[in-house]
Each structure stands twice: as structure tokens, then as C-alpha cells.
Design goal:
365 residues, alpha/beta, Rossmann fold, 2 domains, seven-stranded parallel beta sheet, six-stranded parallel beta sheet, 18 helices, 50% helix
Length: 365
Amino acid sequence: MRYYIIAGEASGDLHGSNLIKAIHHKDAHADIRCWGGDRMEAAGATLVKHYRELAFMGFVEVIMHLPTILKNIDTCKKDILSYKPDVLVLIDYPGFNMRIAEWAKKEGIKIVYYISPQVWAWKEKRVIKLKRDVDKMLVILPFEEAFYKKWNYKAIYVGHPLIEVVTDEQSVPVSQPLSQKPIIALLPGSRSQEIKAKLPVMLLMVAHFPDYEFIIAQAPSQPESLYTEIIGNRPVKMVKGNTYNLLRQSAAALVTSGTATLETALFGVPEVVCYKGNPISFWLAKKLVNIKYISLVNLIMDKPVIRELIQNELNEQQLVASLNEILQDTNYKKQMVKDYAELWHKLGDTHASTKAAEEIVALIS
């Protein structure tokens, strides 16, 4: 069978790579073509376009890059028609993927959405389009199944793919220590614009916590020069392609919003979520988005398990106070350990990639 998979960012590349491995296990003759990243290519797919050429974040940024985005959509459509897949698998990335889904449905292509767009957070009526265009919706957050049921749309909860990723990582011994000091990990994101917005504030902590080693998790898709220009003369290390090993050795972490907040929690690391975006994009998002929290951890738990510093709150003073809290406040850390254990319980122990692959193969068989 022929599978066409589209992911548009680093987390999609990770989950897409594990899905590709699972599909190959279920279908020994699978031929897979993708938009994604290095991980998906390494897993056995033919890579058409890398996600670093696709990742635009925020309303203003999307408008600025609209000609590029429209050109990519047109290129993608032509490539799909040429490839003639038995199924099109879309991984999150809704601005792009929902347009492709609408077009592909008219072309008579079977469509699976793996990792739902966050329609429960904003523009909820997009569910109507998803019902119309998507043959099978596979969700990874526990509350999403009930959300779609409210719209009379059957979604299948396959479990969260990070559970299998973190479990596999923890089964391997920790490699050589990254530092003799206790470590504070800095995870400023994978897009250049978010790194430029958040890393400078994170690095202000180096002067306030001299007893700790600060280590940056460098995004595989970004050049080292992007980081060194921001670091300057500060005594800060970097690791590339080794984020999980870094988290396993860290006493705390400063993390940009997104999948990384959940990864950090599943590794049991106390964290502060840092978010700062374009002021106009953020203002528009506040008008449109209907969620209480920006981190996946707090959304899944439906309470403020981890501290979130958003926009103007992400400043030197508040970040120092928040970092001190997760490093020094014993009661806070004890509660966080309990909450992290409950988080694992909520997500369950399903092997998401295997379950998703089963559902995809079943649709076209």
C-alpha cells in the first residue's frame, strides 16, 4: 500500500517517525512518502519537503509568509496526485493540513487525521469541516474523544505517543554525565522566531543561579550560529539531538509551550513554561482562543500543575522567582511529583503508534 504522510513541525516529525515504523511492521510492503523531517526520513519514508521550510507561527507571521505557504500547498497537491496514495495521513499542523484534506476529499482520497487539530481550543466549528473531509480521526488527548462525541463525530483515542517514546528512553541507561553541577535545561523551541523571542530571557537566569549548569537543547533543524549569537559570552553549553538525555539529568527546565512541556513532565522534571510571541498575534489569539492554559500538562490535568509565564509575565524578575520555587520549595515539588504521577495515569499505557497504524491499515484494507 502507498501512504502519504504530512507533518509540519518537530513534534510531528517525532510522532510521524514512530508511526512510519509501526506501519512498516503492519504492512511489509508499505511505500511511504512524506512531508516532515529527518526522523521520518530515517524511519523509511521518502522525504519531499522538510518541516523547517513550513514552520510559521502566529497570525502576523502566517500573513507575512502567505505566498510561500500557498506555493507549498500547490506543490503538495501536485505531488499527492502524482504519487496516487491509498491513504493520506495528516499529523496536526491544521492551517496546512485542513486545506489539503478539503482538496483531497474531492479527489476521492481516503484521509486519516492522526493527532487532531486543537479545535477544542479555538474555532470549534472547524469540526464541521473535519467531519466532512476526514474518514478517520485518531486523537491522542484523553478529553478529545468526548469533545468530538459532542459533535456527533466518532474519534478514536489511541493513547499519547509520548508515553511509548519516554518509556523506551527510560529503559536505556543514562549516558555520560553532561555536567558535574546540577543542570537547568533550556528548551526554547524549534522555530527560529520563538528561539529569538524566548532564549534571551531564559539566559538571564545564568547570572542568578551560578551553582547550576545551563544547557540548551538545540533544535536539529536550526544552525548553531542562531544560538551562539544570542548566548554571547555566557558560560552555557548546548546539546543537539540529545534532549531526552539532557532532561533525564536535569534538576529543572525552562520550556517553551508545546509538546516539550509534556515531554519534560513525563521525565519528571520540574519546569516553568515560557511563552512570548508577536504582540499582535498574541492579542488576536486571546480574542479567539478559549482555553485556560497554554501547556499540555495543565490542559490535560485541568489545573495549574506547572507555572506558566506568558508574554509580559515572561520577564527576569518573575522567571527568577518561578525558578527558585521549583528548585527550593519542598512542598511545591512534592505536589508536582504527585501531579506528574496522575498525568501518567490519565494518558494510560496504550502504544499509540501501533494502535494508529492498525487503524490506518484497516481503513485501506
